Amino acid sequence: MSTFTKRREALTRIAGGALAAAMLARPLAGLAQAPFPGGWPNRPVRFVIPSGPGAQTDLFARYVADTLSKVFGQPFVPENRPGASGNIGAMAVVNAPADGYALLFSAASFTIVPAALNPDQPYDLLRDLAPIAQIGVGGLFLSVSPDMPVKSVKDLFDLAGANPGRYSYGTTGIGSTGHLIMASLLSQRGLRMTHVPYKSSAEVLRDMVGGILQVGWVDSTSSLGMVQAGKVRPLAHGATVRAPRTPDVPPLNDVGIPWNLDGWLGLFARAGTPEPIIRALNAEVTKLTQGEEGRARLHAMNAANPPPTTAAEFAQKIRIDLPQWRKIAVDNNIKTAS
User: Fold this and answer.
1) Helix/strand/coil for 136
2) Which helix H or strand E contains 29, and what residues bound it?
3) 3-class DSSP state of 213
4) 3-class secondary structure, 144
């Protein structure tokens, strides 16, 4: 066989192998795009956060957005839209097309609690948004200043019962989660304490440390430093689980107070967003939160990691929780959040 013939056969084999490789690669590339209508995402995705930048929730939202950007190959762009108890951010997604290009990363305090307080708010949580994934479980600490002569929730309620109207408690505003929880607990026991609304958990902590306020519901993340320094003393966690960085703070259930409502973070889309997009986002967010880094970031926020849930299971949790929050608001004549 001549040198020319050998060279031609070798080139033919190389070309044939390249063609075969290309034919094998073609179906794989097609599979990567097949599940999503319109080739989603083929442009940037808005990632709306209904609170200001810099807080732990915002930082975690940006971590989720960055991870999804890497997974899906398009930027998921964080967009802070604070105000109106979360309604401004929610409406930015509700008013967007149901095509998966606008997502809402929110918290129970910005979604389900405002919906419970105001059934006539600009959007319907159950009708206008599609739950995608629940992220983390948390709550507030019922805390007292160190000079309060109580060691437990029972002690606090006994003291309030013996001194009607003498003690005050602070929360982050009228209609806030802490206000709803405390109003429910006090009314069930026929107790009276004066509600003092603040604008933030930081302000509640400031006045507790300064001796101005003796009882307060404070964020279980931002209060960690004060708790660890002994400047405020948490009596109970207003959730169904123990927080990972403060496992010695009992949930309300563990101190004999029936309670089945939690705070959470969650991802939502506009109602009507194609189901394959919802499923894909749920799968990736679940993978993120169940992974080592995601769990560590949640725990750094003092948030527990719930078992994985489908989008349908998250939606069902909202349908169960919303009437309970609404009943608390109605029973205690709490009508508006601030």
Assistant:
1) strand
2) helix 3-33
3) coil
4) strand
Of the candidates 318, 307, 337, the one whose C-alpha atom is nearest the C-alpha of residue 127 is 318
Kindly report the pTM of this predicted structure. 0.85
What is the C-alpha separation between 117 and 333, in angstroms, rounded?
A: 10
Q: What DSSP state is assigned to residue 237?
A: E
**Structure tokens belonging to residue 206:** 């400031």
Rounded to 10 degrees, the C-alpha dihedral 313/318/324/328 comes to 150
Q: Would you say 213 and 117 are in contact if contact means Cβ atoms under 8 Å apart?
A: no
Judged by average pLDDT, the poorest of 12-16, 36-40, 333-337 is: 12-16
CB-CB neighbours of 107 under 10 Å: 22
Task: Read off the pLDDT of residues 156-211 as tens digits, 9 standing for 90 and up.
Answer: 999 999 999 999 999 999 999 999 999 999 999 999 999 999 988 999 999 999 99
Q: What mean pLDDT comes out for the span 11-38? A: 44
What are 14's two structure tokens? 């190389």
- Which value, in Å, is the radius of gyration of the alpha carbons in the chain? 25
User: How many residues belong to the chain?
Assistant: 338
Nearest by Cα to 109 from 130, 136, 143:
136
Look-up: residue for tokens 């709550």?
A: 139
Q: Is the pLDDT of residue 12 over 60?
A: no
Residue showing tokens 């401004």: 88
With contact defined as beta carbons under 8 Å apart, do 219 and 228 qualify?
Answer: no
- Which structural domains are found in the chain, ordered by start? 40-138+262-331 (3.40.190.150), 140-255 (3.40.190.10)
Q: 3-class secondary structure for 283-303?
A: HHHHHHHHCHHHHHHHHHCCC
Q: Find out whether 196 and 170 touch, Cβ atoms under 8 Å.
A: yes
One-letter amino acid at 135 equals: I
- C-alpha closest to that of 304 among 267, 263, 266: 263
Q: What is the pLDDT of residues 102-112, one digit of tens each?
A: 999 999 999 99
Q: What is the pLDDT of residues 227-243, one digit of tens each?
A: 999 999 999 999 999 99
